[in-house]
Specification:
This protein is mainly β. The protein has no helices and 5 strands. It has one domain. Helix content is 0%, strand content 37%. A hairpin with a 4-residue loop joins strand 1 and strand 2.
Length: 70
């Protein structure tokens, strides 16, 4: 299983989350809610991108993140 990868583009205001290898990207699908699903050749969702993401100024030193494993 691939590691989950999270990328935040401050200038582009996008947050991209990958569940699988980004090189497997084949097609994207807009959901209409400023979310783009990223799919592989089989149509499985391997990631998503959230548009217009702006974190508060106090997060300048980093993005608050909590990872919970169940």
């Amino acid at each position: 299983m691939e590691k989950i990868r999270v990328f935040y583009d401050k200038e582009g205001q996008t947050l991209t989350v990958w569940f699988d290898d980004p090189s497997k990207e084949h097609i994207t699908e807009e959901t209409g809610d400023e979310v783009i699903l990223i799919k592989d050749k089989a149509g499985r969702v391997i990631g998503f991108e959230r548009l217009n993401v702006v974190f508060p100024a106090e997060s300048e030193g980093g993005i608050p993140l909590e990872a919970i494993t169940v």
